[in-house]
Amino acid sequence: MTVIAASATAADATALEHLLGSDQVLRDPESLERYRHDDAEWADSTAPLAVVLARSPDDVVTAVRWAAAAGLRVVPRGAGTGLSGGANAMADSIVVSLERMNRVLEVNTDERYAVTEPGVINDALRAAVAEHGLWYPPDPASSAISTIGGNVATNAGGICCVKYGVTRDYVLGMTVVLADGSVVELGRRTAKGVAGYDLTGLMVGSEGTLGIVVSVTVRLLPLAGRDERAVIGYFPSLTAAGDAVAAISRAGIVPAALEIVDRTCLRAVDDWMHLGLPADVDTLLLARVDERGAAGDEIADQVADVFAEAGGTDVERATDPGDIDRLFQARRLAYPALERLGPVLTEDICVPRSAVPEMLRRIQVTADAQDVTIANIAHAGDGNLHPLIIAPEGDDAAKARAKTAFDQIVADCLALGGTVTGEHGVGLLKLPGLRVELGDRVLAMHRSVKDALDPAGTLNPGKAF
Question: Which of 191, 211, 335, 447 is the most buried if burial means most Cβ atoms within 10 Å?
Fold first, then answer.
């Protein structure tokens, strides 16, 4: 545990308390340790000098201006649920937490948009707009605990993104605090608009390296008009389930969701939550179809046929909302269930849908070669795979093998034409793979953008590229 020594930096932190108030600036060792890193515990981190609990855009401006003048770094943070180290603190840094900025500011039913502060939990926003008959589609598996600001920072996807898209597809505009403490309004609230460069799109997925988002305007869809049904199939292997995914894509079928959950995840979830999940299956493939009436029935039948032809057994359709929610709950709970078994190193690769079977095969080869347990969940419908590498607590040799497996999975993903991250962000964990993926010239373009907006490197330096 790092404790602030009596030094110039400690005196600086006292000055920050005078600016914002002691109730908004945390300096005690326990708090500094709690805010030291996000859920990417495998990535490097250092206890920050202080934690600012911002309540307003003005608080963020004050903290950024103060840090810039003091020559310190600023690490923006939402709920701390990130899995790549994007919110990990570093030497000579303060963490600016946005968790208290948690109000939905406006819901416009005529124009179908909402304005929200960054600390609003994803599910809370969805519930708030549902009261107005509207729907915010992006739904990361962490939707019950992750914030809209964090979703914007990583361009989060989710279970229904195969049909409805990712966070960037729904962000119309935002208010951003830049590295010098100035505040800018980006984007629009109109249905269309092409004025200037797409700076809103640039900020989405920038992981807090270009600015700190203090409000977001998101596009909404009507809540009515969907008629959900699920198709469930059990497969003898991961690769067989991958074959079904590739066949769904070849057939031109676009389900609202298409998720893989392997036996390790199913067992971990059921041992924890006792949902009555099947105990004797290798891999579950779960599709959701939401077209209304006969059209939806026809698509569900097509999905079921593909499942059966690819080797799925006990293929069945579910229309009861409770049954559908129970199965998708198993998918959402997979990661926290596995965390109960030991430290988890989470991958977030995305490959072409046709390459899903081969990538799943290579993951299994890597697990055997490195003698590690790799559980698998996936947003399979868009090729976004999440191999979860588990190492027993305190087993340094297993942790080293897990890291080797992590690097091999990234290399195999790139060899198959994939990308090192589909939705979790680069953070710190994916930096080596990103450099291979982008190459020197494109990395230089990234640095040029960073230098233009943050020449002193104040905002989250060393992250994302």
Answer: 211
